[in-house]
Design a protein that fits this description.
This protein is mostly beta strands. The chain is built from 2 helices and 18 strands. Strands 3, 4, 6, 7, 9, 10, 12, 15, 16, 17 and 18 form an 11-stranded mixed beta sheet that branches. It has a 7-stranded mixed beta sheet with strand order 2-1-5-8-11-13-14. The protein starts with a strand and ends with a helix.
Length: about 240
Amino acid sequence: MKAAALVTVTRDAHGNSVVRDLRSMTPLTLVPHRKPGPTALVHLVSSVTAPLGGDELTLTVRVGRGARLDLRGVAATVALPGPRDDGSRMTVDVEAEDDAEIVYLPEPTVVTSRARHEAVLSVSLAATAVLHAREVLVLGRSGEQAGHLASTVRASRDGKPLLHQRVVIGDPGVDRSPAGLAGKRVMGSHLVLDNGNPAVVSGDWYSLVPLPRGGSLATVLADDVVTATRHLSDLNRRLMRCP
């Protein structure tokens, strides 16, 4: 299955962020919250079981000057094998103009046994745009060995690179090793791209590090999703930079 969805948000003369263009395609269903305000709220709903092996899904996000978008998932993404040995791919392509702000908070991605999934987040920001993006990866369902997942984040500001990171999970030996996930089932990250320069924060299973050109990257390892999400929220609340 190939599917593409699009959401475009601009700011109107009254200071409201307005969804100007909304295109859904199964399984990527976008549901806007109709109440006007400074931030446009849109939920991303998976309307059928996806991604399956062989699926190619693309979500395009465009936010205009001064507009704000809160894009949230509704349920976990469960990557499943397909009828053949094909992998699946989900690409999220984000562009934001000056003074725009995007909060992208999808629900966790569960990598089931025999699945092969690739997730790509591509971000292009203008000079004063801000992004918050969270990712939580779960190695298999309860009692299940994980499949294979490669997650890539590429971000730039005014055409200059900010971050290029790739995480690969699904090799049992690496996932159990101290150089990998140290046997933890869940890996979470929260990326903030702004002009902030926070101090380093670290603990036994979490860290928050500043990025060279502004912003920060928080990373957490945990045994369950609730713990990972709580640690990510706590790290960002300390900085008072994320809702």
